[in-house]
Predict the structure.
Amino acid sequence: MMRAAVLEGPGAIRIAATARPEPGPGEIRIRVEGCGVCASNLEPWAGQEWMTYPGEPGGLGHEAWGFVDALGEGVTNFAVGERVAALSYRAFAQYDIAAADMTIRLPEELAGQPFPGEPLGCAFNIFRRSDIRAGQTVAIVGIGFLGAVLTRLATAAGARVIAISRRQESLELARRYGAAETIAMHDHWEIIEKVKSLTGDNFCERVIECVGKQWPLDLAGELVGFGGRLVVAGYHQDGPRQVSMQMWNWKGIDVINAHERDPAVQMQGLREAVEAVAGGRLDPAPLYTHRYTLDDLGKALDDTRDKPGAFVKALVTFS
């Protein structure tokens, strides 16, 4: 048996004793060391009309790392006891199952460090799709975990980053991760005029929207210069969106949906993230600001929504 979080309904989680899963052919079982809390968890937590309850044991948890606990038939490239990160989907539990080909071994350089692989891999895939080059001006709308990592990657690529976010703590974080300019995300037209001034009326070659709401998407479109690229990295799951096709047509911009569903591409981003963190090119540790036990998952979700103080990202860890 194992302990697992079950989403019983909007705002309601129960910690249940449930059967420990068994790996099938090509799968491994992971003894979960920890799992990040994703902003995409918030809509199911709040309750959306497309949700059904109760959820699966461990459901919502998809940012896991831990230790290989058992091997399914045919798995020869992992050994019990190895530390790994995986793209799995029921990791708010003591154990989860992952496909072996969606799992990556963590090198010794990462020993003892949390490694929520899914969001780190996403950041690298988004960065690749953004095609950021030295000398470009890049606006990043929304500075949380994802926006901060992208700020570091874009800056390291030689771009000038303009970070736009609501909270003062987020703007300070963006500065620490390399942003050249920061703008408080309060007044729509004031932000546009500020970016216009900072870019000599040219606006930005690249704009990455990291919020997943209508207004930030509207704002992001306004900030792209002629022939530039708008990258949608925010997870828009609370309803339809409207866009200004007239403006997008007039500017001749490229629009990229940077959410990847190809498993090979997802794993490419994860491998790049492991190499970057292990090699010291990216230090995400300051972004893991809050830690919770499984029993406090509801509090972790509330804090992910409300962002108290210097909150950036929550991790649920298992002792």
